[in-house]
Amino acid sequence: MSSRFSDLVEEARLSLQALADYGDQFFHPAVRLGVTGLSRSGKTVFITALVHAMLRGGRLPVFEAASGRIAKARLSPQPDDAVPRFAYEDHIRTLVEARQWPHSTTDISELRLVIDYQRASGADRSLTLDIVDYPGEWLLDLPLLHKSYEEWSAESLMLSRKAPRAELAAPWHGLLATLDPLAAADEQAARASAKLFTDYLRACRDERFAMSMLPPGRFLMPGSLAGSPALTFAPLELSGAGDAPAGSLWEMMRRRFEAYKDVVVRPFFRDHFARLDRQIVLVDALAAFNAGPEALADLQAALAGILDCFRVGRGTFFSALLRPRIDRILFAATKADHLHHASHDPLEAILRRMVEGAAKRAEFAGAAVDVAALAAVRATREARVRRGGDDLPSIIGTPAAGESAHGEFFDGETDVATFPGDLPMAPDSLFDPAAPAQAQFRGLSHGAAGDADFRFLRFRPPRAPAAGIDAPLPHIRLDRALQFLIGDRLR
Ligand code: GDP
């Protein structure tokens, strides 16, 4: 099928679906909320905490409807039979009873929450909230839809020659230099280069480098497609002249790249992304600060790429009929409980700076964009600790059992106070590779104040409250996120 024709078929399917959804919306008000973010950004913890707060009446002062107008929230069977259900019950038990963090997102899942509430006018109503959890890596694949194999190859190669990627890409570059794109297609060559290319992507994701721009997303999260031809390709060094000869390695790689779009990217766009109304993008900004300015620049590029996805369909990819419906996007820096509250506003300012340019483009396309610093589950409390004559704003939590980056041993039970470091009020220094480390971010320095250690302690979830699993969990600014995402739909 030509790509133009398949786009038309896609459009027709999508508009039928949009019409059906619209009719249904009239009788049963509903919001489809997408929750995404790169691996380990905090999606599973966020959804678990959100659902728990709604079911158990968490403390949510900024979420207007929660102050008296929500009668009851309940779980209900989800509408999509082919999508796994988000394992809320397992996750909350793991969090509260085992005091462990739940297993992270590796695939799409969904959960339906029905909220019975009283309208501001007094009438009783229900809002159906469908929460769709999916890996942010899938979102970063959407720009591939507009790219040819040759364009993607050139871009990926260019990126892989920059620091700190170049060093990590050396083994793959070594193999690449021996491959002739014009030579006959060779399965072993394709497999070997796909493997080394994937190893390079995986190394970039490592917490020391914390790179974010790593498409194709399924290379790191293959699921059931592991080993299939649609995942067995890699960029090639192409001279730019001419076209791929029939039967060449180049042609084979190009066919597989197109297959990846057909089998992975288009179905995700059609079945999931195009049906969302609201979106929260979770960002582990602290991990990027810890890895340094290159990681931050990379994260910034990834966030811009993500924001541009929300414009897909607005005159570019599909016709105006099929605009993705998303009209609100929240970028949230997670795990803010790793910082003292004095750093929460600076954290938001940094995130705002990172999405500024791209946010303007999204706003222009009709979506409101906001940022927040939050902790879906607050694992720490605050204290002032005197050290060497200084009175330091510190946080206290229970580090997970094991050895820290400092070589200290934690038993997993004893609380430890740490000075988390301050975020600079002026975010610019964080983005400047030439700025001294102290001006960038004094990471969680467990020990002497200010000794720049760019490793975080991993805290265990908070101790279970006396009321057990039914009690609300502590959080930071979860209510603000809820107010932005669904507050207007509960009026
Ligand atoms: P996912 O891959 O996006 O689903 O990420 P998870 O929700 O599984 O979170 C990854 C890890 O980040 C967890 O195992 C926790 O260690 C940590 N984390 C996530 N949310 C929070 C939070 O609100 N507070 C703290 N302290 N840690 C968090």
Task: Give a nutshell description of this structure.
This protein has 491 residues and is α/β, with parallel strands linked by helices. It has helices at 3-27, 43-56, 88-96, 136-139, 149-160, 165-176, 187-205, 249-271, 285-291, 293-309, 344-364, 437-440, 478-486; strands spanning 30-37, 70-76, 109-118, 124-133, 278-283, 328-333, 368-373, 381-387, 390-397, 402-403, 409-410, 416-418. Strands 2-3-4-1-5-6-7 form a 7-stranded mixed sheet.
- What's the total number of strands? 12
* Largest sheet properties: 7 strands, mixed
Helical coverage, percent range: 25-40%
* CATH level 1 name of the largest domain: Alpha Beta
Quickly count the domains: 3
Question: How would you characterize this protein structure?
Answer:
By secondary structure, the chain is α/β, with parallel strands linked by helices. It has three domains: 2-134 and 272-377 and 474-489, P-loop containing nucleotide triphosphate hydrolases (Rossmann fold, 3-Layer(aba) Sandwich), CATH 3.40.50; 142-261, no CATH class; 381-460, no CATH class. Helix content is 36%, strand content 15%. The protein has helices spanning 3-27, 43-56, 88-96, 136-139, 149-160, 165-176, 187-205, 249-271, 285-291, 293-309, 344-364, 437-440, 478-486, and strands at 30-37, 70-76, 109-118, 124-133, 278-283, 328-333, 368-373, 381-387, 390-397, 402-403, 409-410, 416-418. The strands form three sheets. A seven-stranded mixed sheet has the order 2-3-4-1-5-6-7. Strands 8-9-12 form a three-stranded antiparallel sheet, with no helix packed on it. Strands 10-11 form a two-stranded antiparallel sheet. Helix 2 (43-56) packs across helix 3, helix 6 runs antiparallel to helix 7 and helix 9 (285-291) runs antiparallel to helix 10. The longest helix has 25 residues, at 3-27. The structure holds guanosine-5'-diphosphate.
